[in-house]
């Protein structure tokens, strides 16, 4: 079902957020939005509001497509006030996303 797929994709997005995998997070959020576009009545619920806000802020920072950012706001059920505060934070340069250190990861394999 699309609802199950949307939930699975969002769990992946949170996983990539926690792991600091920027490219994977962007790709997965794009898939979440596409899945939502197929069935607009579906939304995502998540216990940790801070993680929802982090996903939104990261995506806003790294996406030039205002319609996708607006769609993500609806999917995450964030208020205009919440997203406005997040946009101000990102625009001020105070939002940082901890990306994984791939060089360290590769080096630690050997």
Account of the protein in words:
The model is unreliable at 102-110 (pLDDT under 50). It contains six helices and no strands. Helices cover 73% and strands 0% of the residues. α1 (2-19) runs antiparallel to α2. It is an all-alpha fold.
Annotate the secondary structure layout.
Layout: H1 2-19, H2 22-38, H3 49-62, H4 66-76, H5 80-91, H6 102-109
Helix pairs in contact: 1-2, 2-4, 3-4, 3-5
Key structural traits:
single chain, 110 residues, mainly alpha, 6 helices, disordered C terminus
Largest sheet entry: none
Give the N-terminus to C-terminus distance in angstroms. 42 Å
In total, the number of strands is: 0
Query: Judging from the principal axes of the Cα atoms, what is the shape?
Result: globular
Helix content: over 70%
Structural class: mainly alpha
Instruction: Kindly report the average pLDDT value.
Output: 85
Number of helices: 6
Rounded to an integer in angstroms, the radius of gyration calculated over CA atoms is: 14 Å
Proportion in β-strands? under 5%
